[in-house]
């Protein structure tokens, strides 16, 4: 049992937690604790690659969105030459918020306090009373917006606050193999379909990140109606079939559900399947053709889910993809961003049908979304209670599982899909950051 510290002993407690993870234990209190939240803001989010935007959200010069890395509000904008920049959403003069809208189009940003004006790429170009007030002592090139390091993969824009953190490619560590299922459904890649759903919930971000790292265990219970009404192309008895894949030491994980009677690439239109076979590698085709449901998390807080959904029970239905970001705003509280991703080159009819399936299943008022948040908010509430201070949860499914030797994809891949291996990997990496043992 973990002895939870509430004072300066937090450092030793964190090391104890990390050792417990190796044995299949994780403290309940971690899902709603002020000290843990503060340490995540200081040691986790500034040092990881955090998702900021999809390139298709800012397709034209001047387009911008505002997003977060931890408690830092970031402007992500496309300049007049088409390049993407990220800058802290704070005027360098007295710290006022520059962009008060979450999205828009602007070639320049002007502070509403003292009027300092910046290009959308971050350079300071306008200072009222420059000659009279500063008398030549202010050099505009030294006072641009604070730049944020960015990198991209297949349309995803990530930001990192620590210049010592390795490249995004190294950070992903081979997880790109699995991300391609969501992002390369065709030769033109992916795009967002409409703005993200966006709401605040009394839920800890880590519960969501864990669930989407491959929790197939909850599905036959929390989403039982899906089986009873025939909306899943599987049954409770076959739902556990498939693989759990994780990148050891990176925290990323994905669950790949497989149904024996589900058609290869079921739920995709034929023309899109043909494109995917030209775009993906032979190993990816071998794996993805067998996948019914794919639910994965890029450490720390970006997740994806793909599955078929049909309004007609028993039919294969249409594939949809939801991309989700869990932004922590306090212990046990987060902002949820949820996008629908569609293949850029697909027909408008398919895009609209996929968006409809996403909305009904995992939009803000989606049926499956309501099931999950009902449970997640209650878990978060329980984690705050005094009696759980020294209570651990078991993470012992699949302890000692050996890698599936026949699986062609990267990482540690085990069977069945219902497994705790991905979660131990997730929490081990989380603990490394909080302890401070992650090498720059």
TrEMBL record:
Residues 49-128 form the Rieske domain. Pfam families: Rieske, Ring_hydroxyl_A. Keywords: 2Fe-2S, Aromatic hydrocarbons catabolism, Dioxygenase, Iron, Iron-sulfur, Metal-binding, NAD, Oxidoreductase. The keyword Ribosomal protein does not apply. PROSITE patterns: RIESKE, RING_HYDROXYL_ALPHA. It comes from the Bacteria. GO terms for molecular function: dioxygenase activity. SUPFAM superfamilies: Bet v1-like, ISP domain. Belongs to the bacterial ring-hydroxylating dioxygenase alpha subunit family. This is Aromatic ring-hydroxylating dioxygenase subunit alpha. It comes from Blastococcus goldschmidtiae.
């Amino acid at each position: 049992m973990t002895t939870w510290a509430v004072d300066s002993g937090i450092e030793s407690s964190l090391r104890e937690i990390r050792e417990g993870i190796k044995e299949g234990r994780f403290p309940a209190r971690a899902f709603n604790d002020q000290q843990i939240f503060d340490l995540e803001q200081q040691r986790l989010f500034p040092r990881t690659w955090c998702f900021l935007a999809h390139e298709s959200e800012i397709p034209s010069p001047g387009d911008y969105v505002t997003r977060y890395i931890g408690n830092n509000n970031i402007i992500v904008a496309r300049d007049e030459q088409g390049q993407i920049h990220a800058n802290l959403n704070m005027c360098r003069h007295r710290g006022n918020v520059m962009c008060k809208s979450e999205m828009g189009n602007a070639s320049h940003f002007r502070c509403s306090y003292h009027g300092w004006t910046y290009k959308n790429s971050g350079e300071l170009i306008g200072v009222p009373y420059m000659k009279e007030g500063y008398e030549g002592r202010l050099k505009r090139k030294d006072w641009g917006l604070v730049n944020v390091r960015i990198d991209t993969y297949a349309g995803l824009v990530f930001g990192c606050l620590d210049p010592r953190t390795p490249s995004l490619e190294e950070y992903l560590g081979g997880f790109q193999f699995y991300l391609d299922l969501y992002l390369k459904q065709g030769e033109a890649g992916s795009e967002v379909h409409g703005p993200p759903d966006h709401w605040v919930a009394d839920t800890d971000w880590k519960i969501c990140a864990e669930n989407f790292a491959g929790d197939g265990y909850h599905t036959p219970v929390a989403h039982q109606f899906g089986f009873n009404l025939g909306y899943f192309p599987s049954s409770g008895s076959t739902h556990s079939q498939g693989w759990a894949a994780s990148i050891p030491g990176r925290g990323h994980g994905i669950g790949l559900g497989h149904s024996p009677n589900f058609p290869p690439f079921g739920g995709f239109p034929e023309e899109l399947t043909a494109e995917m076979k030209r775009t993906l590698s032979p190993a990816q085709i071998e794996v993805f053709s067998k996948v019914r449901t794919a639910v994965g998390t890029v450490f720390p807080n970006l997740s994806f889910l793909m599955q078929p959904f049909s309004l007609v029970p028993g039919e294969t239905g249409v594939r949809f993809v939801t991309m989700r970001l869990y932004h922590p705003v306090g212990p046990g509280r987060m902002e949820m961003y949820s996008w629908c991703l569609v293949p850029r080159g697909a027909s408008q009819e398919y895009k609209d049908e996929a968006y409809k399936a996403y909305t009904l299943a995992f939009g803000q008022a989606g049926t499956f979304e309501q099931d999950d948040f009902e449970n997640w908010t209650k878990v978060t509430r329980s984690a705050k209670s005094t009696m759980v201070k020294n209570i651990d949860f078991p993470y012992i499914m699949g302890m000692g599982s050996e890698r599936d030797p026949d699986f062609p994809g990267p990482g540690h891949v085990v069977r069945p899909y219902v497994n705790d291996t991905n979660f131990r990997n997730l929490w081990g990496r989380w603990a490394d950051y909080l302890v401070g043992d992650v090498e720059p």
